[in-house]
Amino acid sequence: MDYKKIIAESIKIDGVSKEEIYASISVPPRRENGEFCLPCFKFSKILRMSPAAIADKLKSELVLPPEVQSVESVAGYLNFKLDRAALAENGLRAVAEKGDVFNKKPSNGKTVCLDYSSVNIAKPFHIGHLLTTAIGGSLYRIFDYLGYNAVGINHLGDWGTQFGKLVSAYKRWGNDADIEKCGVTALMELYVKFHAEAEKEPSLEEEGRHYFKLIEDGDKETVRIFDRFKELTLKEVQKIYDRLGITFDSYAGESFYNDKMEPVIKELEAKGLLTESEGAKVVDLSDSGMPPCLILKKDGATLYATRDLAAAQYRHDTYNFYKCLYVVAYQQNLHFKQVFKVLEKMGKTWAADCVHVPFGMVSLEGGEALSTRKGNVVFLKDVLSTAVEKAEKIIREKNPELIDKAAVAEMVGVGAIVFSALSTSRIKDMVFSYDKALSFEGETAPYLQYTHARCSSILSKGGYKYVSSRKISWDLLTDDESTDVVTLLNRYDDVVCEAAEKYEPCLIARYLLDLAQSFNRFYIEHRVITEDKAATDARLLLTACVKSTLKNGLSLLLINAPEKM
Fold it and tell me: What's the predicted TM-score (pTM) here?
């Protein structure tokens, strides 16, 4: 039940729409002020009254809806207290009827394309890829749950001179047995060796360009070698994606757009947008306060911007997207501003639906800057495996009798890594710590997973099974702790919608922490399984709703919730 809507419909403010009133209603920071409040400060300018006078006036005119028990005017706020028994009944029944796995919302007919992860062929899947992969993968699940047609796109880095250099290194120093055994690690070592040798023998750079030209020209032997590099890379990164629960609908990378750039270039020329600058072709963006967008180099070679323009056009033509999101680090802010502005100048009305979703940098505690050329990389597979090993050690100490320790450790270790990437605002730089991420206390995935497992244990001991016709004494769930839990449960879909609107999975992470902390306070204050059957039935239902909400919320964050820990 949408209590904010019920309250908003009961309030009339001249010159203010119901939508504005709805958006202004929030949850008070202090429990004694009720379940919802309406700050009246923003209406002062319109009504030419003080916030306190506005709150007093609204209270005197308000006809309370049946769901609201009372309303108070306090220091410019209108505070609403709900009928707690009705709140519990409506909220818990709604969650319980969703079952253990929440079905996604009915289709809204809108498509959201998400460009994320975008691994580079023949380069390692390192810790630096964690944020784009986790944020993009989570947003994919969030939009899918909300009824959008989510299209996950892995825009592979599979084009450029570096691949000619790698072919050169392979032909000079490559060993098929090593490559077959070590995969991308062996390829990275060849790439590092090439750059080290090129510093002593500069002519190697020209050799690298020669081999890339052979790839461009479709030379069978060179393309065969490069295709093998691609196959090895995708096979290896798929293991990481499987561990993270990541799926893609398209692997159309840079090379896919080789034959799709020419129409874009011709359209730019036809519309008089291409100008020459020092022999190169650019789109002038000075009227938007940006440097020119480089489309063609002096030698006619295309650039990232050229490919991204072609990719945007292709995605619009293919998917007719409602939004096209680019989950790419903030260092590319200017690049995407330029690309979107060029699309706008081309008359693409849908350019406004292309959105850059930036994020910060990631590093390990005490770690060096990442550089593939220098070989300074921290493989994500190693980070995941280390976290799982540490999780299993903790689990063995805490619960030596647990069956399937390895499976639970995989959920806890991987979940800890993912949650560390998603639990704070995406734009913040992230310094990863194993000890902090794997703590069973504090704001971590193991804490949420442990709370879920606690709920599961309680339900198992209580023999809980949801029966819609069972009579529940709702007045037994009107204490402060129960009401806090129920109020949070009622906010789940609102939080998921806000996370989608702001492209911020951390809002769901924050919500789940609040819910877990609220439930644990309830658990400390109230025995769930008691000699009083009515109290037991009511509290078991509340516990079941917390469990299913934690499980489904964690799933939106790519995290599994074990039944036992």
Answer: 0.91
